[in-house]
Amino acid sequence: MAKVSPNILVVDDDVVILKFIEFTLKGLGYQTTLAKNGKEAIDEAKNQHFDLIISDLYMPLIDGNELVKRLRKTPEYQHTPFIFLSGNTEEETWIKNLNDGADDFITKPIKQKIFISKIQSHLKKAYLRKDILDSARKDDISFEKGNLIYCANRIKPFALPRKHLKTNIKAVYSDTDFFMALQDTNTWGIIIDDKAKWAITILDKITEIVSHHIPISILISDADDMDQIDQLLSSKISNFLFKKLNSKLIIHQINSNVQREHDLKNKYLNALNTAAKRSPIRFESEFEDDLRDFNIQILNQPYDKLPGGDYYEVVDIDENRKILILGDVMGKKWDAWFFVPAYIAYVRSTINFYLSREEFDFIKSPGKFLEIINKSIFKDLKLSEVFTTLSIITVCSQTSKVSIASAGALQPVFYNAKENKTTQLNIVGTLLGVIPDAHYLSLIQDFNIGDKLLLYTDGYIEAVNDRTGEMIGDDAMHYALDNKKDKEIIAAKELETELAQLFNISKYDDDRTLLLIQRN
Question: Where does the signal sequence lie (predicted)?
Fold first, then answer.
């Protein structure tokens, strides 16, 4: 359930703008905290939790760009919507700050209707993340895969009975450890010792972050201290555990709370999976097709077996031509999946419309198609808030050419059989919906026998090498393709296996899609 009154941090060195935004947000019933520079903003963020942050880009002491980078390093603000205010409309500035962690821009002078629409849209997405994703973080939600977080006193921790508990307990002794523990795995509940002063001090911040989806219990030392109990009752906690109770009763209380959370999460997960299965937008995990002497293969694996943000489409133009679509809505699982049908609808309808009119050649100018899609999405205030990459690839067996246009997608890897050389193709473009008049280039590549083209989403390159603890990066995709280049036809699944073996990958933490085009 969404919060009644979101708490928003506004940062700007211009007092007039601060007051204007404060007036607007209070008119919507939102709480606001004002800061005149990045340093003040960081101090405020340490003491309370904010559901959204609006910041000027250019400020003294700590500017907006440095502010967003610092906040993104803290676990509790990794996913908090961050919106820049700026009169700078240069594309390079926007892209740089989006890459550094910002979610959106609002240009100055501020247009109130657009400002309100963007704030409300980002808050809705943030609540989707809290209310759904955190409630159904894993498809396997067995008790063994989750834990209780126990905020303890480092000097003299109270010994919670663990032997007969249904799940594990992870003890933490600082706010940094606590917020890191929240990111790690399924959390069935939070137990706070009233002697853990560091946790009691930030109790309001903790409850603001988790109170709607994780129950909080307080371990009480003195059951007769009604002043303390009354004060804690005002902090949206779920229940009390009394240290002087028999250990069996403490265990029973904790287990009952965990069982209730387990049942609720099962209910959410089953309902969402049912909705996904009934959706008309579904993607096969493995796809293969031939276009004369071209072989096309696609692997699509959502994160944790739940519908996610990666999507693809294959459109037959005629017996000699195909259009391939590969996209990635930013985010994981449900928060990304909710927007995939809308993007697919835009893509399908636009392709069908222009194929029937034959106004431009998809083979020669896929970039033109991206420009049309981009303008439509920019005008859609909902979709323009959700960033997506999109690649348009057209294959023509008659001319033996493959054309590519990119909106923020990763650079594809190409193996040229004639030159026996594997390289990354230099085709880039702005994310969809960021700039209304973005121009997209079209790269037309001759495709000879033995050539291979590999496109992929960031779920692959952000995988972590178990031995080094570092992300594998683009070079890994280059190396994996180069390692298999001599095969006449590489199986896409074989290429993924090769990648996992070469770079010690045991799991992927995001949706991933691989598109492989070969000519034999």
Answer: none
